[in-house]
Amino acid sequence: MKIVKFGGKSLASGQGFDKVISIVKDKATQGKIAVVVSAIGDTTDTLESLLDLAKNQEDYLAPFLAFQERPYHAGVDLEEEFTLLQKVYEGVSLLEDYSLKIKDSVLAQGELISSKVLTHHLTQQGLPAVAIDSRHFFVTDSSFGQAQVKEEISKAKTTLFFKSLDPTVLAVVTGFIGANERGETTTLGRNGSNYSAALLANYTGASELQNYTHVDGIYTANPDWVKNAQKIDELHYEEANELAHFGASILHAKTILPLVESDIPLRILNTLNPKSKGTLISSTPSTKGIKSLSVQSDVALIQLEGRGLLGIVGVDARIFTALAAVGISIGVIAQGSSERGLGFTVEAKNAQQAVEVLKKEFQPDFYTKDVDQITYIPDIAIISIIGQDLSTFDKPYASLVKNKITPILFHNTLTGKNVSVVVRKEEAKKAVNVIHGQIFGMAKKINLAIFGHGLVGGTLIDQILASATAIGEKKNIELHLFAIGNSKKIYLTENKLPSNWREAVETQGIPYNIQDVIAFAQQHHLENLIAIDNTASKHFVDNYIPLVEGGFDLISSNKIANTISYAYYQKLRKALQNNHKEYLYETNVGAGLPLIDTIKLLHLSGENITKIKGVFSGSLSYIFNTYSVQDKPFSTVLEEAISKGFTEPDPREDLSGNDVGRKLLILARELDLHNEFEEIQIQNLVPPALQTIDTAAFIASLTALDAPFEALKKELQPHTVLRYVGELSGDLQQDKGILETKLVAIPHQSPLGQLQGSDSFFEIYTESYGENPIIIQGAGAGAAVTARGVFGDILRLADK
User: What are phi and psi of 276, to 5 degrees?
Assistant: First the structure.
């Protein structure tokens, strides 16, 4: 015989109920079975809430009548159950209180109703069935709400009961309930129906227990929380028992034990997907080993601290004894040594009582000041990683910290193969996803918020969408764009960004401030957050530190943050350090060239950099490379540069030398120099009369630049060309260097003179290399090049 058990969710919906009937009929044709049922859907919660309404003398009658009229009760003889419930609720309302004994009597009606309802539908379908009350044979002690089954007498009574049943009739047995030797109703505690089914399988010598639930089996994590959780095909009893002990909701901590005794396999199956093979739990060792994450929520952390207790024997025993006396069990425990302290978890509902009991127990120790305080932290969750060795937990831990999740408490079992992490309840879902991705090597999800979707930003978004599949396959990284914004509004989505994202941003974007973005990420438990600034805004920089404090790493093509005051520069670095965040900005100088990284590595390795010189602006490189050799007016060449997207939105940012100056300052600060922007000697190529007009007026007046630049061109010596260069020199081992930008004449055959297109060119002089500089040259302008450089920064951060 096989025992087939159905959970409350399996019976909850019309489709689920139809599936249950179909499965039972199919199983019955294959061989002898008995069915165990939980209460239907939310019945248990409803019955308990009605108790509380009655106790508080609130209106319980209307919701009770509504409960009676539920569609699946129609046509079933439930008069006995409804009459009992009505009398109990009336009595509770008069007494304004109820006991655990009364509560058990009420909750038991859920399973009794369920067995009768399913039996009714099965007989309607032509399958002979009978509703069986497990109180006839499950004998327990009188621990109401958490009764212990007396196994020897229960087994004997069960054997006799089932031998007396008509073998042609299907038994539909109530789970969760039993009765003490006086015949008083008891319940077996949380998930007690699974335990009932395991006991019945043991007592009847069943060949297998099949537990039908709302999922396809046991997963590496809750699939409702972790979308890429994997189903585990096979488990050994011991592994399943560990999962049950650490809160796997699909198992009860005692479910496995009756099955182990008689070597009865347990198969977890899905009511709505009966073709799935589910997860098989048996005595066969699993060859792959097992790692799975389970979560216990509704937990509180009790903290006892006292310097005066250091070295005193028996403190732990006093704590455990005092709590055991009131029926409070302890979960995860951690102990301090340098300062006597003890932290442990209890069910949230018991936290206040636990603190009061301990304060009473340690009252004399408060008086002697040996105990400082006893407190509790509510809303805690325990994440247990079954099969995880603590020695290899470094990466998951680092990822938690990177995602601003600091574990409150750690616990490691004696075997060293199970690790528990205590976190705040609101962080649990995000923490599970972070840990799961690290442990199982799933595609790491990187959540991106992109600010600025013009030339560079828009190109970057298109590049990400075009490359997402390839990156997922090659690097095991899933890039998810959840926010796209500009200065006025933002588009937020938890789902995949649509290909017509520009239209979505335009039509569905909403006004925002940066806290809205941070709150959205927190609300949806988004991990591995990166904010990308592709604006040219001076004001957006004010959002950097709030973003860092909100859990974001930073990437920017915007140079402002690195070139405003040195005090802010240091403040931002301090915030990054305090929050374990990084800030990448390779495109700030040289677009996609590896210049900043090279200088960082040289400097960190102790190399003494003595000078940096070159053409820093791809825009000005294109302009003067072209103007020096072609017979075109300067305004024509500038218009070409603008149309190609080589310049800033206001070309004066390039022509003024400010852009080159900022890039020079960024490199200076990479060498720990304290220079300010105002200290840079900058040659402004824009005539004074054109410096203060608005951008549109300047664009309309470009021909005014032709005459002065034509005069400069005529003054050039033969075989020379114009180049706008930046130079960092002086004693770079001091606090400040000499920073200068200027337009110079260069021999055409020199490395600088031979530059073409929009290439940038950098010479890095060091003490070791002497007069032979390190040269870095390549494309230094253009939306595609800059966007690709930002994309590179995203992937570098993702790898970390």
Answer: -65, 140
Give the integer Cα–Cα distance in Å for 524 and 543: 21
The answer as to whether 87 is a domain residue is no
**DSSP-derived 3-state class of residue 575:** helix
Residues 634 and 573 in one domain: no
DSSP state, residue 408: S
Which domain range does residue 560 map to?
Answer: 444-588+791-799
Q: What is the DSSP letter of 690?
A: G
HEC profile for 169-187?
CEEEEECCEEEECCCCEEE
Query: Which region among 172-176, 645-649, 699-703 has the lowest average model confidence (pLDDT)?
Result: 645-649
Tell me, yes or no, whether 574 and 717 share the same domain. Answer: no
The DSSP bridge partners found for residue 611 are 765
User: Among residues 272, 287, 302, which one ends one of the domains?
Assistant: 287
Q: How far apart are CA 255 and CA 249, in angstroms?
A: 12
What local confidence, expressed as pLDDT, does residue 253 receive? 60
Tell me: do 206 and 313 sit in the same domain. no
Q: Is 735 exposed, middle or buried (CB count within 10 Å of its CB: 0-12, 13-18, 19+)?
A: exposed
CA atoms within 13 A on the CB side of 487: 9
Last residue of a domain, one of 410, 440, 470: 440
The partner residues of 377 in beta bridges, in order of sequence, read 301
CATH number at residue 316: 3.30.2130.10
Percent of the chain predicted with pLDDT > 90 = 61
For the chain, give the mean pLDDT: 90
Count of structural domains, the chain: 4
Under DSSP, the state recorded for 763 is: E
| Domain contains 12 | yes
> Does residue 770 sit within a domain?
yes
First to last CA, the chain: 54
Q: Read out DSSP for 15-59?
A: HHHHHHHHHHHHHHHHS-EEEEE---TTHHHHHHHHHHHHHTT--
Res 632: pLDDT = 93
HEC string of 372-383?
Answer: CEEEEEEEEEEE
Residue 667: the pLDDT is 95
Q: Strand runs (DSSP E) across 356-452, as ranges?
A: 373-386, 409-412, 418-424, 444-451
Is 783's pLDDT higher than 90?
no
Asked whether residue 580 falls in the same domain as residue 608, the answer is no
Residue 712: which CATH number?
3.30.360.10
The reply to whether 203 and 333 lie within a common domain is: no
* Chain length of the chain: 800
Beta bridge partners of 268: 211, 279
Q: Which DSSP string do the residues of 191-248 spell out, in sequence order? A: THHHHHHHHHHHHHT-SEEEEEESSSS-BSS-TTT-TT--B--EEEHHHHHHHHHTT-
Positive or negative, the Cα torsion across 216, 218, 224, 230? negative
Q: What is the pLDDT of residues 553-568, one digit of tens each?
A: 999 999 999 999 999 9
How far is 263 from 245, CA to CA, in rounded Å? 19
Interior angle at CA 544, CA 533 and CA 663, nearest 5: 60
Rounded to 5°, angle at Cα 622 from 620 and 626: 115
Residue 628 has pLDDT above 70, yes or no: yes
Strand-pair partners of 615: 761
Q: Are residues 621 and 726 in the same domain?
A: yes
Report strand pairing: 170-174 vs 129-132: parallel
Statement to judge: residues 450 and 551 lie in one domain: yes
The residue among 44, 132, 130, 119 whose CA lies nearest residue 85 is 44
CB 675 within 8 A of CB 668: yes
CB 266 within 8 A of CB 212: no
Per-residue pLDDT tens for 708-722?
999 999 999 999 999
Rounded Cα distance between 140 and 147, Å, is 6
Q: Same domain for 461 and 427?
A: no
